Amino acid sequence: MHREPRIPGLRRTLRNPAGRIERDVDDEVAFHIDSRVAELTAAGVDPDAARRRAKAEFGDLVASRRELAAVDRRRYRRELIARAVDAVSLELRHAMRSLVRAPAFTTAAVLTLVVGIGAVVTIFAVVNGILLRPLPFGQPERLIAASHDLPPLGLFHEPQTASTYFAYQRLAQTIDGIGVYQEADVNVAEPRGVAEPERMTMARVSASLIPTLEVSPLLGRAFADADDRPGAQPVMLVSEAMWRNRFGGDEKIVGRRLDLDGVSYEIVGVMPESFRFPTAETRLWVPLRLDPVNPPPTAYAYTGIARLKPGVTIAAAQRDFTSVLRRLPELFPSFVPGISTETMIAQMHPQPVVAPLAAELTGSIARTLWTVSVAAALILLVACANVANLMLVKADARQREIAVRSALGAGRARLLLLFFTESALVTTLATVLAFAAASAAVRLLVAAGPLGIPRLSEVTVDARAVAFTTVIGVFVAAACTLFPSLRLGPAQQNATLRGDVRGGTAGRRQHRVRGTLVVAQIASALVVLAGSGLLIRTFQRLSAVRPGFDSEHVSTFWISLPAGRYKSDTSVVQFYGALVDRVAAMPGVAAVGLSSRLPLEIHGIDQNPLYPEDDASYSNKLPPLQLFTAVSPDYFKAMRIPVLAGTTFQPMSVQRFEEAIISRSSAIAFWKDSTGVSAIGKRFRPLPTGRLYTVIGVVGDIRDTALSAAPSQVVYFPETLEANGLARRTKRTMALVVRTAGAAAVEGTIRQTVRDADPTLPIFDVRPMRAVLSAATSQLTFVIAVLAAAAAVTLMLGAIGLYGVLAYVVTLRARELGIRIALGATPGAVAASMAKYGIRLTAIGVAIGLGVFTLAARFLRTMLFGVTPGDPLTLSSAVFLLVGVALTASWLPARRAARVDPASTLRAE
Amino acid sequence: MPQFPEELLRGTLDALILKTLTWGPRHGYAIAGWIRQTSRESLAVEDRALYLALHRLEDKGWVESEWGLSDNNRRAKFYQLTATGRAHLKAESSRLARYTEGLFRVLEAGAWESR
After folding, report:
1. Across the interface, do A35 and B29 touch by the CB < 8 Å criterion?
2. Contact status of B72 with chain A (Cβ, < 8 Å)
3. Which of A300, A329, A361 is the last residue of a domain?
4. Which of A370, A403, A640, B32 is the Cys-Cys partner for A550 at CB 3.0 to 4.6 Å?
5. Pair (A368, A352) in one structural domain
6. Measured between CA atoms, how close is B65 to chain A, in angstroms?
7. What is the ipTM, given to two decimal places?
């Protein structure tokens, strides 16, 4: 007879088999000795002597027993494993056949899980790379970002000034080192100008920075303190990528030279590829060369990173920094010319802020990533629920098989194995596919991800992602097994064997299971739907924001004039003046202007106070900071920023040094005048003592820093020829802003024009102004895209789940419905009773979903603009959409219920 | 008493046990008795070694065991040859035959030379 291989029950496996094995060994040995004694006695030997002889013949009894039992135990263990392998492989073959026989089920289940697992794994890879993996520096957990809050100015996490940096470096007790850096762009050329010059991202760093980060160069040396003094020989470090691409991996690169903005720098070392600091785009590092005796009077301009001494807490470091800052006036009495350090501290109330470096670097993106993670987790949840539902349907079709197998002695463990093998097969296949899909998605994301995500270049599918995928796969397989096996009670089996299942009475328990699954799906779908709805509303609001300028048909080109080549302000202004004239004369160009910064970009931000003439109110408090921008006269025309009062500047060749144009909000802030008229002719100083400027015009406000932020106060200065070498405000790095008539293509001609004027000048960051605008919302559009996809998937899967359950219930209750129709119930009433079940599940799901969302929406708050987390319009739209889809999903099975033919269902009995 | 190399001794013992079982299932005591008689007590083996060999053969899958009743109605463990055990015995006997043949040839040649 064929014996079904059995997995020994849990109890038997755990029970110590040694007891039985040793007893058997004892019995066998005793039988031998007794038999020998009996034989010898029969031959006439004295019984005692016989026993002694039998024992002597046998050998060491104790050792024998031990050895024999050891052999038997080994055999027992091996048999156990062999039996389990047998059972599993039988079950695997069985499951494989059953999956192949039901291709529709298999495809649906696998695809659903691929979506769910793929989403979770992709997001995990991103979260892991950006938030979880330690920073690529030595002992990164001891690194802190050191910044300042300036509450009276509404500025937070502002970087270091040169003087605060030197103060912490000299006096802070809790740190093993502090370094500062500043990001910059630079024109890079070969010493003899062979290759075309290139614009590159670099960082100016203090010599202390690289040792503080505990990173060593790949080749050569890092900066020495002697390199970091004013007047030191210019030296630089290059990145590994630059070394390989530009220098072909030359081993003798140390000592070679490059021209940075026309100044020759000696290369002293190569930094490894893993040193993507401060960004992945950084190619070069040069010393900051700050003067420790007379720190330059720049304001908060240098980002600070310190290394805590081992065992020091953040709070202790914070206290230490605070006490050091109190002593700043002793060390450096003057903050900037005209403002003493004492005054600065009294007016700005700088508070040192010390935070873990990793959190500081990724703080901006962390919330977004966690939001997306939640959406991905919900997709997986809904996908699992759907597959569990599919498994239930499949298990129902096998009720009889299961009942027969359990009657034949298959234990619960064995039946669990039956379900588990099938979900394991499906899950394994889905996990492998999902992993491949996720790897592709991650590569795509890294290549084309939205701008401004820190550490994005470090995101890869690594061993941790593989491990995570495996864990998720096991979890999913277990979840999909759990539900079908929930009703493996003994009563259920008996009922099935008796055939009760046809009556539908035994199905109550699985109804509840299925109902729960559907409710979970609907609740998840609502959460994701409402979340993406809120973000879409935010996007609408942001798109509706009038930025104050017109980005249509405007192109921007950045140019930087190196000091080595354009030594005086006069030469800079002459170059730009001639360039603007030449571009303005080009066909298709409607207006052209220059600006030292573009709205919504970080590049070129320069914030300073403004002291109105004869206004005593700012003698002991700091006036609001202004964004200082250098522009050419037609910049406003090119950007269509309205001139509200007064006029714009004179042509560049005759721009006047002492003139300025202010924005409307500056006029309101200082002269309480929204029309701008009364601000005209007023005079102010950028420092309490210093040159006076006269307001000659007031222009409209623009959204300068972010679409969601209020307009900044802006002061526009002219690019001027040198005037006695005093207080130069002329900027060398400017954006050429070109408005074309219609969609004229001018890029080629403009590049040619610049090349004609100076072939050594690179043009960089060439972008239509529209791209600048959309880059400002790129992170948001990315999240919206992800959430909208998540919403679509959960909604669809939820609808499928609801439909599946109702359709199944109709099939199950066909006989009952047939009887009711035969007894005179109208088809409409029958359909309504079915639809009611669907509606009840939907209602519970919606209620739970709304509850969960209200709790979760708080986390969305910082990502929203112009809409509250509880926005009734968004929530009700989400509910309506969901209920509409749910009604459709219920209606189809209900209609089928109404069409049950009483005669045929009754006959089928 | 002749001193056999350990491995040869064990192989021989295995072969003897398997041979014993070719005539049908029997318990350890019966096997021991048979070996004692056939080898005319020349192969003085401890019973301990015999049982250890039996259990190892079972572990290898050459014999299988079942508890049954002995002639005098006591619970006894009966061993039985399996198909693989039979195949192994065949291979092992011819190997042993070759070995002993070779051994004798060497011994006799030595005798001739010393003559």
Report:
1. yes
2. yes
3. A361
4. A640
5. no
6. 11
7. 0.84
